[in-house]
Design goal:
The complex is a heterodimer of chains A (598) and B (629). Chain A has 598 residues and is of the alpha/beta class. Chain A is 66% helix and 9% strand. At the A-B interface, helix 2, helix 3, helix 5, helix 7 and helix 8 of A face helix 1, helix 2, helix 4, helix 5 and helix 6 of B.
């Protein structure tokens, strides 16, 4: 798994793929030499045919018919080599991109929003690939083609060469313009499409408001505006695309007329032979595409370089959490200590945590209680170094986590986030996220039993495809509680030495809560548990409780000690006792009302 | 997808037994493929779908007819070109007549220019017709979605619906951009070429035709391969992007679980498959290009052979060869169009599947007994729920036999725990959902007898989580007006004492509102929603108070705004704040979907029941909130 990292520099990548590029270039040279030979033969053959040497013309013709077959093989190979080189570099860069993204932390993701990252990973990478494939091949090819075609043309007639070249620069300029406008039009077309999907998205996401305020007509009208803008752009693009062929074809036809007119004249005055005329015609014809391609290439190179600079920003972003080098001698036991931990997100921002200390022995349990915004989740993220933890503050089995390899820390300290983000894959694969293979019968069995522990088994089985139902962003929509419990099952599957659970039961009813707490208590026999919660019912099952307020530890002790102290924890307890009473009373009265109605 | 129709629940053991029958890997792959909408190959032409598309195309069909007519003209022009070349070459090589050559060259130029211009008009008129038809279809789908019941959106992932309106309709557009009609053109060309070749020289034709089938087969085989590669590329692109996007949004989880390596490996699988599909595609495309190139070069060489054998005139041979070269184009095109037609058809299929939904939102039942039947005393009621039952999912009742009414001008608060059904009552008044039993009346009339817009015009709703539309503060207050009345917006904001607050912002009232109003605090969003309600100025106000704590300045603004807002209106308030609860005329206590207590604040406190307990809880919470501040 410790492969040498993929180089991300363009030059380094070129060197890595030097073999295919060089071989491809050599083949392009061979190809253009072959076409040169073909033109020569054509010149000679036609002169023979017209000069009455039928036999010789026939021989030349048959020989010439073989050349294109060889040329075709060479041509295909050259393209495959160079284009594949471009695709392979694209593949490697994309791979390196994800690897880099995996190293980067929240500081980076705050600066670069995910839309921006995606745009670089798609649009910019495409531009770089075009630079490395299409542009390389066509620049090289155009040089060789010019050399090959001009050598033959000039040896036929300098004057006719100049005359027939007249339209080619124009052709190149025209394609250059086309390529430019095409690029900007395509981009703006995509932008409008993006606006349109944002518009639809906003309208559908706000459907409740739309309906409550009877805004349907207004929404349709405002959609219609974007719809028409998109229509306009699409038609402008269609016009541009459609006019490309007529313009270039007409230009080529003008060139043809010149060759016929002037060349015919030169043939009649015997300045060139008919064979020379045909060969010239043929040579000029095959110059058209390389020059048009050059028109495309000029813009592509500029765009490709700009795109690469944007990708480089990601490749060279520095992770704010780096590996420590000290490998622990013994297996991790799971003793966790936090010593005078202070933390703020930015240097100029106020402290989120201020002098937090506590210690959990291996297989002990601790509850972290506090209001929203008291710093609980920040503390939890610091433990496995998902945020840059200051040196000398967090210790695993007495070793500073900053000294340990990240892999060891994160394997030992499992933090199950409050935000129950699920991936767009099946329930089974979400629960088995920490497994390497979720498809073995044994894994399936474990997934099922974890789902049961997290009290989500029955609901999962009732989903359209059971454990194979796709959930997440665009899959079946689950309730907040279901998502939370699937995320909990995922965390339970993980089995780290220290399990940090961030508010795993905020969205469940009392009965489910009790069952889940039983599960967590069972877990606590096998591993160290840090439970973040605002529920007193959960906290009181832990060995010790830390109450956090405004980043400070305001109380620390057992459930009974804290109740006796009064303060925030006692208020929480009172509040939740009342809430419990209200729920029971409410249920009783509802049942009574129901009985009364019946 | 419909979750509404859940089959009777099988015993868990049964399901487990069933699950173990199929191997999980295959099952998962199947489900994921379906999820990513990587449908298997569909038909390239489906008359039923085309018939459903026709109504959208018909208004713009003139462009299509024009394009069809021009197809024949351009095909004819391209068939004439080789003939002109023949006359030029024969003029040069046989008659040695330079004037005729130049004249021929000019003629050729003219034909090319005319052909290309006509083909521009042809392509453009077809694309215009198509793009316009698709814009209409898009608008239709959008309008259709807005006519669906709210319940529909509870079950549908929004991203997918957005795709229907955007990408899927774009796919259908391929039918016009490069599709069906041009295929007709290709066929016309093919027949024309064959006919011209026979006319020119039937003996050469027979030789050529003997060689053409293998060529056609070759092209077709290449196209077939490249079509498969192309399809792979498309599905892999979508998966690559989806995967990467999800890695970025779920990065914290990937890192916490230490799954970077595993994710990287999974990504590599798709990334590699994508690259390899591209390799295949490169191979096919390069071969096809080179083959066309090769054949034209060989044809030129064959001219020499023909000249050597003294067959027809060189001109004829050149023209003949030109036809052979032309022959390639339609064959290669036809094959490519096939792919695009397939994706157009699957796009159309998905769009029309969406349009097949029939859950119309609140259709007015005009045969309902109208106002006349309502007893006089009930006309004094602003709204009334009469023994209403309701459930979102069959078998999971949310409201039981709710009977509740408000006189005009009365202010009512609903209190109760989360999930007791408070918000649902508001939704039923607006007829966002239909009760399963009982009747809902607004201003004395059954809600079912109203036109949808007419009913909802009676209400202003301030939801708990205020939704702001992308736009500006002004457009968000004046939501519902295409052209906002600025003076009225300012007045509304001033009334809810928010004008100074927002005017202070950069950009003032024209400050941009980000997606979902992310750049506004909860309190600010609430104020905007208040102004929105005031701007609309309806007789009934429904307010779902926000639970999120706001700073004390905003809190006092909100309280002032609330009293302005309630003035002269009937109000139904789902209340979370003590100050609000005390300010109303009557309090309804809801528990598990039942009304368990009802009365004024003092009456209910005296009763010392559920409300009294709730009130005590709120007091401790409020005390705590102020101790924080």
């Amino acid at each position: 798994m410790k492969d040498a990292p993929i180089p991300t520099g363009l030059l380094a990548q070129f060197r890595r793929h030097a073999k295919s590029y060089l071989l491809g270039t050599a083949l392009l040279a061979v190809y253009q030499t072959l076409t040169y030979a073909f033109d020569r033969g054509l010149w000679y053959g036609v002169d023979m045919a017209i000069g009455g040497h039928q036999k010789r013309a026939l021989t030349v013709g048959i020989l010439l018919a073989i050349v294109p077959v060889v040329a075709m093989g060479v041509r295909v190979l050259s393209r495959v080599l160079i284009f594949n080189g471009g695709r392979d570099i694209e593949y490697e860069l994309r791979h390196a991109l994800l690897d880099r993204l995996h190293l980067l932390g929240p500081a980076f993701y705050r600066k670069m929003p995910s839309g921006e990252i995606m745009s670089r990973a798609t649009n910019d990478l495409t531009q770089v690939r075009l630079l490395l494939g299409f542009s390389v091949l066509n620049s090289v090819n155009t040089v060789f083609a010019l050399a090959s075609a001009l050598t033959i043309a000039l040896s036929i007639s300098v004057k006719l060469t100049l005359a027939s070249l007249a339209t080619l620069p124009v052709l190149m300029l025209v394609t250059r313009r086309f390529s430019k406008s095409m690029f900007s039009l395509t981009r703006s077309n995509q932008a409008v499409l993006g606006q349109m999907s944002d518009r639809v998205q906003a309208s559908l996401a706000g459907m409740r408001v739309v309906k409550s305020f009877a805004l349907e007509d207004v929404e349709v009208a405002s959609f219609q505006k974007v719809n028409e803008a998109y229509l306009d752009r699409s038609l402008a693009l269609a016009r541009l695309r459609g006019s490309m062929m007529p313009v270039t074809q007409s230009l080529s036809a003008v060139g043809l007329v010149i060759v016929f007119w002037y060349g015919g004249h030169l043939v009649l005055v015997d300045e060139i032979t008919p064979g020379g005329f045909v060969a010239m015609f043929w040579a000029m014809q095959r110059l058209a595409w390389p020059l048009m391609a050059l028109g495309f290439v000029v813009g592509m190179i500029a765009r490709g370089r700009a795109a690469y600079t944007r990708l480089e920003e990601i490749f060279q972003a520095q992770p704010d959490v780096v590996d420590g080098s000290r490998r622990p001698e013994a297996p991790v036991r799971g003793e966790l200590e936090v010593r005078n931990l202070c933390f703020s997100y930015r240097d100029d921002a106020p402290l989120v945590l201020d002098g937090v200390s506590f210690r959990i022995p291996a297989r002990g349990s601790l509850a972290l209680v506090g209001r929203t915004g008291s710093g609980k989740s920040t503390l939890a993220s610091l433990l496995p170094r998902l945020l840059p933890a200051p040196r000398g503050t967090i210790f695993l089995d007495g070793i500073d986590v900053c000294d340990l390899p990240l892999e060891v820390v994160r394997q030992a300290i499992g933090y199950a986030q409050q935000d129950s983000f699920l991936f767009s894959t099946t329930v089974a694969r979400n629960i088995g996220f920490s497994l390497d293979d979720t498809d073995t019968p044994e894994a399936q069995q474990r997934i099922r039993s974890r789902a049961k522990d997290a009290q989500v088994l029955e609901e999962t089985l009732r989903l359209p495809d059971g454990f194979h139902t796709v959930v997440g962003e665009r899959g079946v929509q689950l309730s907040g509680g279901q998502k939370q419990r699937i995320a909990l099952a995922r965390a339970l599957m993980w089995q780290p030495k220290v399990l940090v659970l961030d508010d795993p039961i905020s969205a469940v009813d009392a009965r489910t809560e009790a069952a889940i707490l039983d599960t967590i208590q069972r877990e606590a026999e096998r591993r160290t548990i840090l439970l973040i919660t605002h529920r007193v019912a959960a906290a009181q099952r832990c060995d010790q409780i830390v109450v956090l307020d405004g980043g400070h530890v305001v109380a620390h002790g057992t459930h009974n000690e804290l109740l006796r102290q009064g303060g925030l924890y006692a208020r929480f307890a009172e509040e939740q006792r009342l809430e419990g009473e209200i729920v029971t009373l409410g249920e009783r009265e509802a049942a009574a009302a129901s009985a009364g109605a019946a | 997808m419909s979750q509404a129709k859940i089959a009777p629940r099988p015993a868990i053991e049964e399901v487990l037994a069933d699950l173990s029958e199929t191997t999980p890997t295959r099952r998962t792959e199947e489900v994921l493929r379906e999820f990513h909408e990587e449908a298997d190959i569909v038909k390239a032409y489906d008359a039923r779908l085309v018939a459903r598309l026709w109504p959208f195309v018909r208004p713009h069909a003139r462009g299509l007819y024009l394009a069809l007519g021009l197809l024949f003209l351009t095909a004819a022009a391209s068939l004439v070109r080789p003939l002109i070349m023949r006359s030029i070459i024969d003029a040069g090589s046989i008659a040695r007549n330079p004037q005729a050559m130049v004249k021929g060259a000019w003629l050729l130029l003219a034909v090319v220019v005319v052909e290309q211009s006509l083909s521009f008009v042809q392509i453009y008129s077809m694309q215009m017709a198509g793009a316009r038809a698709m814009a209409d279809l898009r608008a239709h789908v959008f309008r259709f979605l807005h006519g669906l019941r709210l319940g529909f959106f509870d079950r549908q992932p929004i991203g997918r619906l957005v795709t229907r309106v955007t990408n899927d309709v774009d796919a259908v557009n391929e039918l016009f951009a490069s599709g069906a009609l041009n295929a007709v053109g290709d066929l016309v060309r093919l027949f024309g070429i064959v006919a011209m070749m026979l006319l020119l020289d039937w003996r050469l034709s027979l030789i050529a035709f003997a060689a053409l089938p293998p060529v056609a087969l070759f092209v077709n085989a290449i196209r077939h391969g490249s079509r498969k590669a192309y399809r792979d590329i498309r599905t892999k692109t979508a998966r690559l992007n989806a995967f990467l996007n999800e890695q970025v949004s779920g990065m914290a989880i990937v890192q916490a679980f230490g799954r970077e390596q595993a994710a990287s490996q999974e990504f590599d699988e798709t990334n590699r498959a994508y690259r390899d599909a591209n390799f295949r595609s490169i191979k096919f495309e390069a071969t096809l290009d080179a083959a066309i190139d090769m054949v034209s070069s060989m044809c030129v060489a064959l001219i020499l052979v023909a000249a050597g054998m003294r067959a027809s005139s060189i001109g004829t041979v050149v023209a003949f060869i030109a036809y052979i070269r032309q022959f390639f184009e339609p064959i290669s095109n036809l094959s490519q169009r096939y792919t695009l037609m397939q994706s157009a058809m699957s796009g159309a299929e998905r769009v029309f599947q969406l349009l097949d939904h029939t859950e119309t939102d609140a259709p007015a039942n005009l045969r309902m007994p109208g106002i006349e039947v309502v007893p006089v005393e009930e006309r004094e009621l602003a709204f009334q729920l009469d023994h209403v039952d309701f459930e979102y999912k069959p078998g999971v009742p949310v409201l039981h036999q709710i009977t509740l009414s408000a006189k005009r001008g009365e202010k009512i608060a609903i209190v109760g725990a989360t999930g007791s059904g408070k918000t649902t009552i508001a939704s039923l008044l607006l007829r966002l959902y239909e009760p399963t039993a009982g009747m809902v009346r607004v201003l004395g009339r059954d809600v079912q007898s109203y036109e949808r817009v007419q009913l909802r015009r009676q209400f202003a709703v301030v939801p708990q989580d205020v939704y702001l539309f992308p736009g500006t503060i002004v457009t968000n207050v004046a939501v519902g007006d295409v052209v906002p009345d600025r003076a009225k917006v300012e007045e509304a904001l001033a009334c809810v004492s928010g004008l100074d607050l927002f005017a202070r912002r950069e950009g003032g009232l024209d400050a941009k509102v980000d997606e979902r109003g992310a750049n506004f605090s909860a309190g600010e969003r609430q104020l905007i929603a208040f102004a929105r309600a005031l701007y609309k100025n309806p007789p009934i106000l429904i307010l779902d108070e926000a639970t999120a704590s706001v700073d004390s300045d905003t809190e006092s603004r909100l309280q002032r705004a609330l009293s302005v807002l309630m003035e002269g209106r009937t109000a139904l308030i789902i209340a979370h704040r003590l100050s609000t609860i005390r300010a109303v005329d009557r309090i309804v206590v809801l528990s598990n979907g039942h009304v368990v207590e009802q009365g004024s604040h003092d009456e209910l406190l005296a009763k010392n029941g559920l409300y009294a307990k709730l009130y005590r809880l709120k007091s401790t919470q409020d005390a705590e909130r102020s101790s924080v501040a």
